[in-house]
Design a protein that fits this description.
Helix 3 packs parallel to helix 4, helix 4 runs parallel beside helix 6 and helix 7 runs parallel beside helix 8. Helix 7 links the parallel strand 8 and strand 9. The protein is an alpha/beta fold. The protein has one domain: Metal-dependent hydrolases (TIM Barrel, Alpha-Beta Barrel), CATH 3.20.20.140. The chain is globular and about 45 Å long. The strands form 3 sheets. Strands 6-7-8-9-10-11 form a 6-stranded parallel sheet. The protein has 11 helices and 11 strands.
Length: 255
């Protein structure tokens, strides 16, 4: 199974992609499933509309699309309530872009939302690589506060922070790298230091092309087992691990 772990769906000022267009591109590029996130306006402000759209798309194509919820920490308890509602309704992860939402990744303002993700046992994706609000060492600090949560470091730090990715994450097993946009040489270095099991394939379409991202990995001529892990198995294993950590927390609470 090939899973694209990061795409956007919707009609925004900067991104426009329909579900039908995404599915056609997935079919053409041999992608079985995709993690869908809202466009910028819905990440920043119209959280409810974005979450409702992701739910509709996921429900319409449950075997193809995996919906991620959004919430803005500046909304306080209203944001917490919206995230609770979205995850309870069936969305399967959380997406943040602190560079446009206007907070540092490691700011305590986001802790109540991360606690919700921990409660539901779902992964948390952070756009990373845009100073000053979205940098790898900030995600490292957050991962130390929430060791039970699996975090996805978006774009492997592309474009401005890729040199920080390895030192920020080498000893943080709960941080995975989503690889869209990142150069082959950078990915090879990350695999050497972090291991291939922490690499997750993503395209960031419509900004980028699924076909280009798949070709990038083909050109690395990896062993079939490693390629399959990066293309899909690592994502599935991360999701299973997130759920297992949630169950372990629940068991400890009831002891």
């Amino acid at each position: 199974m090939v899973i694209d772990a990061h795409v956007h769906v919707g009609q925004g000022a900067y991104k426009q992609q329909s579900v039908e267009g995404l599915l056609r591109e997935m079919d053409a590029c041999g992608v079985d499933r995709a993690v869908i996130c809202p466009v910028e306006e819905q990440i920043v402000y119209y959280n409810r509309e974005g979450n409702q759209a992701m739910l509709r798309y996921q429900q319409a194509h449950p075997d193809r699309l995996i919906g991620y919820a959004v919430a803005n920490p500046w909304s306080g308890q209203a944001g917490v309530n919206e995230l609770l509602r979205a995850l309870e309704a069936g969305l399967q992860g959380v997406k943040f872009n602190s560079s446009i939402q206007g907070f540092f990744i490691h700011d305590t303002i986001v802790h109540p939302l991360i606690a919700v993700a921990r409660e539901y046992g779902v992964p948390v994706y952070f756009h990373c690589g845009t100073p000053i609000y979205a940098q790898p060492f900030q995600l490292r600090e957050l991962s130390l506060e929430f060791p039970e949560v699996n975090f996805i470091l978006g774009h492997a730090g592309y474009a401005d922070s890729w040199t920080d990715v390895i030192p920020a994450t080498v000893d943080r097993p709960n941080i995975y790298l989503e690889t869209s946009h990142t150069a082959v040489a950078v990915l090879r270095g990350a695999m050497d230091r972090l291991g291939y099991k922490r690499m997750i394939f993503g395209s960031n379409t419509p900004v980028n092309s699924i076909d280009v991202e798949r070709e990038k990995w083909r050109l690395m001529h990896m062993e079939a087992e490693i390629e399959q892990a990066i293309m899909g198995d690592n994502y599935l294993n991360m999701v299973q691990e997130s759920a297992a950590r949630r169950n372990s927390l629940e068991e400890r609470r009831t002891e």
